[in-house]
Amino acid sequence: MSDAALSRPLLELDTVVKTFGGVTAVGGLSTRVTRGSVHGLIGPNGAGKTTLINLITGLFHPTSGAIRFEGRSLEAMQPQAIATLGITRTYQNVRLFSGMTVLEQVMTGCWLTREVGVFASFLGLPSARAAWVRTREHALSLLARVSMDHRADELAETLSYGEQRRIEIARALGSRPKLLLLDEPTAGMNHQEATAIGRLVHELRDAGLTILMVEHNMGLVTEFCDDCTVVNFGRLLATGDPATCLADPDVQEAYFGRKTDAERIQALR
Amino acid sequence: MILFLEQALNGWALGSLYALFGIGFGLVFSTLGILNAAHGTYASWAAIVGYYVVERAGLPFPVAVGVGVAAGGLLALAVDQIAFQPLRSRKAGMLGALITSIAFWIILDSLAGFATEQQSLAFPAASFPSGMIDIGPMKVGQLQLIIIAVLIVCTIGIHLLIQKTRLGTAMRAVGWNEVAAALGGVNARMVILLTAFLAGATSGLAGVLAGAATSNVSFTLGEGLMLKGFAAVVVGGYDDVRGTAIAGILLGIIEVFVAQYVSTALRDGFTYSLLLIFLVARPRGLFGSAGFVRA
Amino acid sequence: METLLDLWAAYGSTIAFAMVNALFALSTYAVLSTGVLSFTTVVFAAVGGFLAAQSVAHLGIGLWPAFALAGIGGAVAGSVVAAAFLKLDSHWMALASLALVLITRVTVLNTPLLTGGVNGLVVPMSVPMGDLVILLALVAAVFWRLHRSWYGLAARAVREDAAVASTMGIPPRGIQFTAFVISGAVGGIGGAALAFTLQFISPETYFIGMAFTMIASTVLGGSFHWFGPIVGAAVFTALPVTMQSVLPAIEDVAKGVVLLVIMIFLPRGLVDPRAVGLRRAARRRVSAEEGTDV
Known about the structure:
The complex is a heterotrimer. Chain B is mainly α.
């Protein structure tokens, strides 16, 4: 890969607009995610963060604007094509498959790296079996990474919420993506568990993965994110390094309502 | 020309029966998300009950219609509470309800066979308005005109109910998402019961009228209505009663004309070819709206 | 031995029908296991049935070539249906497939040259029980392999959550298309098997009653594992016979009540692999509470 390609942002959003009926969920948002970084996507509830993730992964198509990944336009692509390019994700409200064991969930996530044709696997050829065993090992190693390998043969839906979130991360890693989108990976976790996720994210980044994560815990954002993008009402409030972003007066207002409160108090007087 | 117009009216009346039946079927499908295989049996049973009201109790036809409508509605309520309600809490989805509705279809159909002693019964001609009325040079059956009027009244009534009233808004909300509806202060249980009753009652109304109009009161009555009513729902779009009404009328008229001018054998062929064309070319029906996008 | 033979004489045809119904249930399961409710197995069965009957009568081919031909015909029909209907959302898909069943009957009625029309067709060949067993075993083996292959894993993912599956690179439409081709092939073979079992087929053979029978068998047996439809077909076919000996007057009513009761108390069907996992998890919780090692 040339130096130019490396210095170019991995993911670029250019004035992305998404409307549902008459409601604007994302209104002309632009931002970029640098290769090899942990990028936080933050904003109040209903700010359009999950919609953005859905747009990037192709579950929704933008009304207008461009989304580029390694220079390729994603706007018109189907989700499976986007996954093939190397983007996978987790979900805000964990969406594991009902009836599957933990290992099966992660195996499903390895679909793109299964190294064998579906028909060969149907016939049970020796090469297909060998590939299946390799994929199984890969899936188990991913489970070990999120400390879930001891639960591999259990039904995922019987496990705790925090455990399910970790399984979902392992599943998203199955296809060896270049960009991982985490939608509130620490929701419902205690401080210790959340910090473990933060450390995992750093390990993954150091192994060459780029991560875009929606996160509400500001402590985690400042501690673990290299850059961040703050959105509100589908618009960009600030982008840059976390400390600068959080100090931005617009961000302060959106999060803590400081300016409005101050004005209201003044108005009351 | 006169024959043409007379036949057009006959077709309109026949189609009105299909539409009347289809409205209830479509209502349950769009609001409750249930493909109800037992829907036809409500019509059969309403006609059978109506028949016995006239034949055994000697009561006048309008009473028979009223009792038949009530019977259809109550039967639908009973089926809903026994066959569908236990599945709702378990989120068994459309599939489980389809199977339990098939179970009720088998049960009610075979009981209907016993009730009519496996025969096709007929309302005595004197018991219902079976005379002819002269409209200009045309002779039209009284019952045909009544059926046509009934459909118009029911379609407008139900359309207004769904679009303009609080209850209708609640019905649409339940149709989209029961959980959201419950959060929004809609009593989902009440809406379900009312929808089931309304669907059963319109099916029952279609059943009694069809029983009188076609001189056939038996378990086959509901099956015939079911097939054609279903076609009306698909052609018209299941989420709009106006579409179902117009499609039903069209199907009735086409059927009568094909039988009159082409061939009786091809009658169903035309109906179902139309169905196929709509499925492929306009899969959401006459008034179909674009579906909600869910990620 | 004597009693065994008596049993065979009394219930042999029931067993044959149970196996034919198992083929139909597996055909329905093929699409249901990718999240599509479709009644088109009836259509595929009609294609396979008439194709097999006509080719046996006029081309003079044997039993197994006729099965193969029926399977191919069904698979072609399956791919056509999939291409036309898969763009519809799930509710419309169910309605459209049911409409196609009605249309099939009318088509059969109006093409007497191919189907014998309203008079039906006499099928000049029958299928020995042994061959039927082998046929069902072969088809079951295919489903067993599918279940344990990448296709099976992808199909389960698509059924449970197609959107999530697609973000992992699994093409839901592609999987469902494949499911329709499999459903078509198995449905076609089932249609031929029915033709050779009944030795007479007519427009009424492949109609609504069959559509509901096969969907009821599938869901009754359980649509989360390929063994479910086979069990379901056996139970659903044996039910009327059993009821006839217990409650002869109201066998149909009893059959409906049994179906109703099973569905209300076991909505996921008789064979449910998930229930095994849930029970194990419950046991683990109990033993954890009692302080013993898991």
